[in-house]
Design goal:
The protein is an all-alpha fold. 61% of the residues lie in helices and 1% in strands. It is globular, with a radius of gyration of 21 Å.
C-alpha cells in the first residue's frame, strides 16, 4: 500500500486513507450536484441525477467512462459543464497527499517540496498542452476549425487537462493532426501526480528528470528546487520508473504493430493511453483483434499497478552486497 500510494513511509497511511475517503465523497458530491442542476433542465430528475453521479465519479476517478455515445462532445460549448469536468479531473489527478496539504495550508502555512513540484509541473503541462492544441488544431475543420472562438478555447484547454489523466473528449480525437496526437501521447505518458487516481510516470518523476538534466548540463552538484536540495536517493528511482515505463510502452507497441495493420501513430496512441489508464482513443479500440485486446489489457493492468511496484513485488528481497568490485568508467553520449 505504501508503494501504491507513493508514500515515503508506512506511518500515517490509515490517516491518509481516511482523508482519501472524505475528499472523494465531498468532491464527487459537489461535482454531481453542479452537473445535476445543469442536466435537470434537459432530462427528467432521475435521469439527470443518474448522469450527474456517474460522470462526477468517472471524472474525479479519471476513468473517462461516459454514458453518452460521443463522450461529452455535445457539451463542448457549455462553460459550466466544461469547468466542472476539468476541476474534477484536476483534483483527482493532483494527488490526495497534495489535496491534504492544500486543505491544511491555513494551519501549516507552507507546502512540501513534493506538493510544490506536483502543482507547478501540472500547471505547466496544462498551459503547454492548451497552447499547442489551440494553434495546431485552430483551422482543422474536423476538430476546432468549425467552432466559434470561445468553443475553441474550451476545447483546447479541456483536451489538455483530460489528456494526461482522464479519457473524456469534447473534440474528435481521431480527426486530430499527427502533431497533436503526438503531443497528447507525451502528456498521457507523463500522466497525473503520485497518490492520485491517474496513471503515467507521474508529474514529479518528469519534473525530477528535467531538473536532473538541467543540473547535469550546468555542472551543479545535486538537484535543487525552491531553495531545497532533492534527496539523491530519489533520482535513481525516478530514472528506474522512466526506464521501466519506456520499456513497457516500446514492447507493447512492437507487439501491437505486429498483430494489427493500422497507422503507427494510432497504435502508439492506443498503447500509451492504455499504459497511462487514460482511456482516450483514435477510434481503433473496437476493431482490434483478440490478440490486440489482450495486449491492451496487459498494458492497462501493468500501467495501473505501476511497473516499479510490479517489479518490486516480483523480485526477491534485496541482499546486502558482500563483495564490492573495482570501479571503472564507461563513455556515454
Amino acid at each position: 500500500m505504501q508503494e501504491s500510494l507513493n508514500q515515503f513511509s508506512i506511518g500515517g497511511l490509515v490517516r491518509l486513507a481516511k482523508y482519501i475517503l472524505i475528499f472523494t465523497v465531498v468532491i464527487e458530491g459537489v461535482g454531481a450536484t453542479i452537473l445535476f442542476f445543469c442536466w435537470q433542465r434537459i432530462y427528467s430528475p432521475f435521469q439527470a441525477l443518474r448522469l450527474a453521479v456517474f460522470h462526477s465519479i468517472s471524472a474525479f476517478c479519471n476513468a473517462g467512462f461516459s454514458l453518452f455515445s460521443d463522450s461529452i462532445m455535445r457539451y463542448k460549448g457549455d462553460l459550466i459543464i466544461n469547468l466542472t469536468f476539468m476541476t474534477l479531473i484536476i483534483l483527482g489527478g493532483i494527488g490526495f497527499l497534495v489535496l491534504l496539504e492544500l486543505f491544511q495550508y491555513r494551519k501549516n502555512g507552507a507546502l512540501s517540496l513534493h506538493a510544490k513540484l506536483a502543482i507547478k509541473i501540472s500547471l505547466i503541462l496544462i498551459l503547454t498542452g492548451f497552447i499547442v492544441i489551440f494553434f495546431i488544431e485552430f483551422n482543422n475543420p474536423l476538430t476546432l476549425g468549425s467552432l466559434n472562438f470561445s468553443e475553441k478555447i474550451y476545447g483546447s484547454i479541456f483536451q489538455s487537462v483530460t489528456a494526461r489523466t482522464a479519457g473524456f473528449n469534447t473534440i474528435d480525437i481521431g480527426s486530430m493532426q499527427n502533431a497533436t496526437l503526438f503531443l497528447i501521447i507525451i502528456l498521457m505518458f507523463i500522466g497525473a501526480s503520485p497518490s492520485s487516481t491517474g496513471g503515467g510516470i507521474k508529474t514529479t518523476t518528469f519534473g525530477l528528470l528535467i531538473l536532473y538534466t538541467w543540473s547535469s548540463l550546468t555542472g551543479k552538484e545535486g538537484v535543487h528546487l525552491f531553495k531545497r536540495r532533492v534527496s539523491p536517493d530519489i533520482i535513481p528511482k525516478a530514472l528506474t520508473v522512466i526506464t521501466l515505463c519506456l520499456t513497457l510502452v516500446i514492447t507493447m507497441t512492437i507487439l501491437l504493430s505486429y498483430v494489427e495493420e493500422k497507422d503507427f501513430i494510432k497504435i502508439l496512441f492506443e498503447v500509451v493511453s492504455a499504459f497511462g489508464t487514460v482511456g482516450l482513443s483514435t477510434g481503433i479500440t473496437s476493431s482490434l483483434s483478440i490478440a490486440g485486446k489482450i495486449i491492451i489489457i496487459i498494458t492497462m493492468f501493468t500501467g495501473k499497478i505501476g511497473p516499479l511496484g510490479l517489479a518490486l513485488s516480483l523480485i526477491q528481497k534485496r541482499e546486502p552486497e558482500i563483495i564490492k568490485y573495482p570501479e571503472e568508467k564507461i563513455m556515454v553520449g
